[in-house]
Design a protein that fits this description.
- The chain is of the alpha/beta class.
- The chain folds into three domains: 60 residues, no CATH class; 71 residues, Alpha-Beta Plaits (2-Layer Sandwich), CATH 3.30.70.100; 200 residues, Rossmann fold.
- It is 28% helix and 16% strand.
- It contains ten helices and 14 strands.
- The strands form four sheets. It has a five-stranded parallel beta sheet with strand order 9-10-8-12-14, sandwiched between helices. A four-stranded antiparallel beta sheet has the order 2-5-1-6, with helices on both faces. It has a three-stranded antiparallel beta sheet with strand order 11-7-13.
- The longest helix is centred in the C-terminal third of the chain and has 17 residues.
- It is elongated, with a radius of gyration of 30 Å.
Length: 343
């Protein structure tokens, strides 16, 4: 049928050639003469549209570039106005989404707004005027604390507990006196989420302490536990948005070792050597985005972490709108899930 249809098309085209201007009646090239008939992409009068359906491009498959958006947060003083602000934001041009439900949690003091644009500060200022509330730009970055990196990991490949004076010495001498606590517990059953630069799971101190999501089946490309993350067997990478929170600079692994390195004769001992580490990658380098930290905080609470460690810092004043957003999200996650957040 395809061959017959092509022959019909060629016959009709040949019949119309005498009607075309001389300049249009160019001789076909040798390649055209020997190759396949050119595809006709215009409708010929009298021929049904469906006869050309196979040759016409499918408009439904056209790739369109999505407009860039930014995520902002409206700070709500009156708990009863969150829905009002959300509705007002949705009525504004350029606003893609607005909701007081963030990461599955209902907020009374925050409205998350997604709006078309690229300049967070400019868009936040415009929305503040339109909505009559403070809108945080949501573009704050934090820095990893301390100078831990892969060089420090090299020091952890030999038994070094005897050199960890802080574990033994009492608080009055600058230590934490953890030896006394070990007689009662070493952290068994506790899950500590570490929002940092990832985790080197191949490191000898990390092999047995990485948290495992028992509600997820590995490698089936499904969100088995319905938490919104596919195959998150060992935490999540909020930088690359995938299930491989692999270490990049060493800071996260060093922090995790200080927290929960096992007493296995292969390095230092963590403060809670029987605890599990939930790795959450939020920093591609020493700079960490506010949005990644917020997402990781909510993930840690929703997925059973008892403690969230954030070895991060910044030089933003306490009255900065983004600081208020971070504080509100952390407080809400603590209220909902009972997680302890430390920095």
């Amino acid at each position: 049928m395809r061959i017959r249809r092509n022959l019909i098309v060629l016959i009709i085209v040949a019949m119309t050639l005498p009607l075309l201007p001389v300049a249009a009646q160019e001789s076909p090239s040798e390649e055209d003469a020997l190759g396949e008939a050119p595809v006709i992409t215009t409708n010929i009068p009298g021929m049904p549209d469906e006869d050309l359906a196979e040759d016409l491009p499918d408009d439904s498959e056209k790739v369109t570039e999505e407009a860039e958006t930014v995520t902002l947060y409206a700070l709500i003083d009156d708990a009863g106005t969150a829905s009002t602000v959300s509705d007002a934001a949705l009525a504004l041009e350029g606003v893609v989404a607005a909701s007081s439900t963030i990461g599955g949690l209902e907020f009374t003091d925050l409205v998350e707004i997604e709006v078309m644009g690229t300049d967070n500060d400019l868009v936040a200022a415009e929305l503040s005027r339109e909505l009559g509330v403070t809108v945080a730009p949501g573009n704050t970055t934090m820095e990893l604390a301390g100078d831990l990196d892969f060089d420090d990991l090299e020091l952890m490949t030999d038994p070094r507990q005897k050199n960890q004076w802080a574990l033994k010495n009492p608080e009055t001498e600058g230590g934490i006196g953890v030896y006394g606590a070990w007689s009662r517990t070493r952290g068994k059953g506790a899950v500590v989420a570490v929002a940092d630069s990832g985790l080197a799971r191949g490191h000898p101190d990390m092999e047995k302490i990485t948290w495992r999501n028992s509600d997820e089946t590995p490698g089936n490309n499904r969100d088995d536990d319905g938490n919104g993350f596919v195959d998150d067997m060992y935490g999540w990478d909020f930088v690359q948005n995938d299930n491989r929170p692999q270490e990049t600079i060493g800071h996260g692994t060093a922090v995790a070792s200080l927290i929960a390195a096992p007493q296995n004769g292969k390095g230092i001992s963590g403060v809670a050597p029987a605890a599990k580490i939930m790795p959450l990658r939020v920093c591609p380098d020493r700079s960490c985005s506010m949005q990644a930290v917020l997402d990781a905080t909510i993930y840690a609470g929703q997925n059973g972490a008892d403690v969230l460690n954030l070895s991060l810092g910044g030089e933003y004043p306490n009255n900065h709108p983004d600081v208020a957003v971070i504080r509100n999200v952390m407080r809400r996650v603590q209220e909902e899930h009972g997680i302890t957040i430390v920095a």
